[in-house]
Amino acid sequence: MFIDSHCHLDRLNLSLYNNQLENVIQNASDMMVNKVLCVSVTLKDFPTMLDKVKSFDNVLVSCGMHPLNQDDEVDQANLLKLADQEKVIAIGETGLDYHYAPDTKTLQLDSFKKHIHVAKALNKPLIIHTREAQQDTLDLLKSEGADSVGGILHCFTESWEMAKQALDLGFYISFSGIVTFKNATALREVAKLVPDDKLLIETDAPYLAPVPHRGKENQPAYVVEVAKHLASIRGQSVETIAQLTTNNFNRLFHL
């Protein structure tokens, strides 16, 4: 069994699936992807996202505001209220992105802190996006005590040094279809080093479809291709990657 630890089902082009989200879930099930985490990127859209997936027992959700959606300050009380629901197993995605939005750095830092505070209040792990903000990300995780709840550095593309420091804080490292890309040599070297008990896989669908589906819209079923590439990189069987990443996901989220 495989688990897609990060996707955005509410952002799929459902016209590709006969306008039925059920078909996306069935495609995943056909590939033995039996659980997915649908990740929130705005608080405004969270209720709609939740409504779309609430009928699927094998779809879990997170609640949070992506660092690239920082038009305003995060309402911490509203985040706490929305995230305090049984189907919500994680807080985020949150974090820092100085590559695309260095001008909102102050807002991003404030938002990240608030997400950590809510995660601690609800005892739910964090889903973290980080790009070109390695030191600030690590500093905040340490200073705000995020290690008490843990979480995932999702769609990881940063250095082994950052991964190692995050691992030392108890965080998990998740790899997406990027690890299959021809120019991702450095990332594949990082993927070799992540310990078995801290490894996760994801699609980030509808984005970043892995080889051999690159250029198409991504979907949870394709997380199997990420697992295959990691198996090859790490010298493990696909079955081992499936078992490890499933166990890790269930352990992190107390499932």
Would you kindly provide a written description of the structure presented here, covering whatever features stand out?
There is one protein chain. The protein has 255 residues and is of the alpha/beta class. The protein has one domain: Alpha-Beta Barrel (TIM Barrel). The protein is built from 9 helices and 8 strands. An 8-stranded parallel beta sheet has the order 1-2-3-4-5-6-7-8. Strand 6, helix 6 (160-168) and strand 7 form a beta-alpha-beta unit. The relative contact order is 0.15. The mean pLDDT is 97.
- Number of helices in the DSSP assignment: 9
Counted beta strands = 8
Q: Could you tell me the radius of gyration in angstroms?
A: 17 Å
Structural class: alpha/beta
Mean pLDDT: 97
- CATH superfamily name? Metal-dependent hydrolases
Low-confidence stretches: none
How much of the sequence is in beta strands?
A: 15-25%
Spell out the helices and strands N to C: EHEHEHEHEHEHEHEHH
What's the story with the biggest beta sheet?
Answer: 8 strands, parallel
Distance separating the two termini: 15 Å
Strand order of the largest sheet: 1-2-3-4-5-6-7-8
Helix content: 25-40%
Shape: globular
Short synopsis of the structure:
The chain is α/β, with parallel strands linked by helices and 255 residues long. The chain has helices spanning 21-30, 46-53, 76-83, 105-122, 134-143, 160-168, 185-193, 223-234, 238-252; strands spanning 2-7, 33-38, 59-63, 88-97, 126-131, 151-153, 172-175, 199-201. The protein is globular.
